[in-house]
Amino acid sequence: MENPSHGELGNFLRSRRERLSPKTVGLPLGRRRRTPGLRREEVAELAGIGVDWYIRLEQGRSVNPSVTTVDALARALRLSKVEHGHLRALTRGADRRAFVRESVPAALKRLVESLNQPAYITGRRWDVLAWNGAADEIFAFSRLSEEDRNILVSVFTRPASKRMFGAAWAEEARRIVAQFRTTHDLWAGDPAFRDLLERLRQGSAEFAEWWGAHDIRQAASGVKRLKHPKKGWQAFEHASFQANDDPALKLVVYTSV
């Protein structure tokens, strides 16, 4: 398969270039600008690389920048640590085997089911692969078809999800989009990811808008307030863990606070 992450690399670089103002990087405003942000030649100059080379990167043409070049671009574009890591991952490319829905080892599934606190396991595409009774009480995974049993599909297409998060829905949804982007960009073009993306774009105007921002965010623990269908509003601490059996599997656990 051709590596489609080159296209997402170009999109990512462009989105970050357009966010920077000349003033931010110490450049004079100069003549009137027809597009927002920095010009391509300005980014190339700040990074100390050739303009043609940078243009090829932003156009998604098949190039393999060195680590030194990637780090120079990160500095020029004022990338955060998480964004810098994403840029490195995009330039390395991804395992281009076709995506296959993951399976959960029996021992890991039994562990999740034995927990008293809400817990579930997701795969690369954020499909929900296993869960326990406490999680089902809140998220109702067992009532969904397999194709609907996906965190993004649930958050963006089910009215119940908006009721569950209440006023915090938009913040939570944007966080999810930014976290999912880090995985999607490495699998861009794969039919399974492409179909999921198209469904979300068609099913949610908010998703389509936030996806275009190309925000990148790392998964982190924290506190959420969720409206339990029987118990009302509850606060939970949440954390996620990678499985040793398969790093694509992520265990998410909620603890009442």
In short:
The chain has helices spanning 5-19, 40-47, 51-58, 67-76, 81-92, 106-114, 133-139, 151-157, 159-165, 169-187, 191-203, 205-212, and strands at residues 119-122, 128-131, 222-228, 232-242, 250-256. The protein is an alpha+beta fold and 257 residues long. Strands 2-1-5-4-3 form a 5-stranded antiparallel sheet.
Helix content: 40-55%
Lateral arrangement of strands in the main beta sheet: 2-1-5-4-3
Gross morphology: elongated
Rg, alpha carbons: 20 Å
Q: Provide the β-strand percentage band.
A: 5-15%
The biggest sheet, with number of strands, parallel, antiparallel or mixed sense and barrel status, is: 5 strands, antiparallel
Please explain how this structure is put together.
- With 257 residues, this protein is α+β, with helices and mostly antiparallel strands.
- A hairpin with a 5-residue loop joins strand 1 (119-122) and strand 2 (128-131).
- The chain has a five-stranded antiparallel sheet.
- It is 48% helix and 13% strand.
What brief labels describe this structure?
12 helices, alpha+beta, five-stranded antiparallel sheet
Give a topology summary.
Blueprint: H1 5-19, H2 40-47, H3 51-58, H4 67-76, H5 81-92, H6 106-114, E1 119-122, E2 128-131, H7 133-139, H8 151-157, H9 159-165, H10 169-187, H11 191-203, H12 205-212, E3 222-228, E4 232-242, E5 250-256
Antiparallel strand pairs: 1-2, 1-5, 3-4, 4-5
Helix pairs in contact: 2-3, 2-4, 4-5, 8-9, 8-11, 11-12
